[in-house]
Design goal:
Belongs to the mandelate racemase/muconate lactonizing enzyme family. GalD subfamily. The chain has about 450 residues and is α/β, with parallel strands linked by helices. It has 16 helices and 15 strands. The structure holds (4R,5R)-4,5,6-tris(oxidanyl)-2-oxidanylidene-hexanoic acid (JBU) and magnesium ion.
């Protein structure tokens, strides 16, 4: 006999709807079902889950006829979009399809993918992925690959919940017991980085990332270079080698200036320099790599293994940073990770986004031998109006200890989303856009 006050009825209902019903829930629900005044729909879902949990039926039997019934998108603060995929078995999956600043465009792209999905078996992730990628003739790019990414994440979430295991178990199991993470400092116009690092060190982090410059002209002055270098010199002077940090050139640095800046930064030994030039100038990666010992990183603006394959072939990158919400999701990023490993390139997924995106990254990190570092957005300068865990019920699973995070224990992506809070937040969707920067002469500057 389960004592009712051990369970929160609302949490039980949320778990019921999200397909996360546990044995204890099932026992509790059975005993107290008449206290809940459940509707017929909830009773049906509960019955399906009870059968699943306690049935001699094969799992395949239960889910063989499963069908995708609905896709719902929620644009929420700070600049995220969450996708919920419903099935006729009452098991739901969550994804995070988003291009920051183009949320409505991606939302429409997700809706336009529905004909490939509604009525289909959610277990057939590979087939659905190729249908979405190849079915529309035109393919790739940030919008379509972000739409596919979020849908793919949600399908893996469903698959894990059906089998009652985390996604990484379905991908062959853990290659590590914990994953190293890093934190942003300094914001868009890097400032107060010493204070930022100091407070994050007190929280246990020892690895950071900051923007390397503000606006920088195609050919800029020694003074502009000196300003960028002095900031890095201050960090090394303040913390020595007790911390590590990556420097994000953020695409703001032209190819001519990248060579100059990399040379001046050599003495301070950054862990890596990210997006040393824009992805459309990727042919400079091997040339720049020949001019510096600093590991070069890129990938947040590459959207499939077909974008990455040329970069792998030509060389120059030591670290690739595919974004799990931009590069086709778990299915595609696992392939990118494996390709990178063959070229002795490390994996450090890009993730300045929300909890589902981070969970998807971690599912790939925990099965990829070459995963070395994971970006996460706690305290990032973009999180105005909501923080990483504001929509998460199982916040304890996101605990970061001395910069490391443990594998999520729950089925699927391992995130229990507070759906009521998401729905409420979506009633007042943000209209986040990145700023349009301009040089002193009025021309557009890379942000
Ligand atoms: O996290 C990073 O490495 C970034 O470069 C941040 C950038 O990707 C913004 O999210 C774009 O909106
Ligand atoms: Mg970046």
């Amino acid at each position: 006999m389960v004592i009712i006050n051990l369970f929160n009825v609302d949490i039980f209902r949320q778990r019921l709807r999200s397909g996360m019903v546990t044995d204890a829930d099932a026992e509790f629900g059975t005993v107290h079902v008449f206290h809940f005044h459940m509707g017929i729909h909830e009773l049906f879902i509960f019955a399906v889950q009870l059968i699943r949990l306690h049935s001699c039926w094969s799992l395949e039997h239960l889910t063989a006829s499963m069908k995708i019934t609905k896709l719902t998108t929620y644009r929420i603060a700070p600049r995220w979009m969450l996708l919920k995929i419903d099935t006729d078995a009452g098991i739901v999956g969550w994804g995070e399809p988003i291009i920051e600043g183009r949320a409505r465009t991606v939302e429409m792209a997700v809706q336009e993918m529905q004909p490939y999905l509604i009525g289909q078996d959610p277990a057939r992730i590979n087939d659905l992925w190729h249908a979405m990628y190849r079915g529309g003739f035109y393919r790739g790019g940030s919008i379509l690959m972000s739409a596919i990414a979020g849908i793919d994440q949600a399908l893996w979430d469903i698959k894990g919940k059906v089998h009652g295991v985390p996604v990484y178990q379905l991908l062959g199991g853990l290659v590590r017991d914990r994953m190293k993470t890093y934190s942003w400092v300094g914001g868009d116009r890097p400032s107060d980085v010493i204070a930022g690092i100091t407070s994050l060190r007190n929280a246990g982090f020892d690895t950071f990332k900051l923007n390397g410059t503000e606006e920088l002209g195609m050919i800029d002055s020694a003074m502009a270079i000196d300003a960028a270098v002095e900031r890095i010199a201050e960090i090394r002077a303040a913390f020595g080698s007790t911390i590590e940090f990556g420097i994000d050139f953020h695409g703001r640095v032209s190819a001519p200036m990248a060579k100059v800046l990399l040379r001046e930064l050599e003495p301070y030994r950054p862990l890596f320099v990210e997006e040393p030039v824009l992805a459309e100038q990727a042919e400079y990666y091997p040339r720049l790599a020949n001019s510096t010992s600093i590991p070069l990183a890129a990938g947040e603006r590459m959207y499939s293994r077909f974008d990455f394959k040329n970069v792998f072939h030509q060389g120059g990158l030591s670290i690739v940073q595919p974004d799990l919400s931009h590069a086709g999701g778990i299915t595609e990023c696992c392939k990118i990770a494996a390709m990178a490993e063959a070229y002795e390139i490390a994996l450090a997924p890009h993730c300045p986004l929300g909890p589902i995106a981070l969970a998807a990254c971690l599912q790939v990190d925990f099965v990829s031998h070459n995963a070395v570092l994971q970006e996460q957005s706690i305290g990032i300068h973009y999180n105005q109006g909501a923080e990483l865990l504001d929509y998460v019920i199982n916040r304890e699973d996101f605990k970061i200890t001395n910069g490391y995070i443990a594998p999520f224990p729950k089925p699927g992506l391992g995130v229990e989303i507070d759906e009521e809070r998401v729905i409420a937040a979506s009633l007042n969707p943000p209209d986040w856009r990145n700023p349009l920067w301009r040089h002193a002469d009025g021309s557009v500057a890379e942000w």
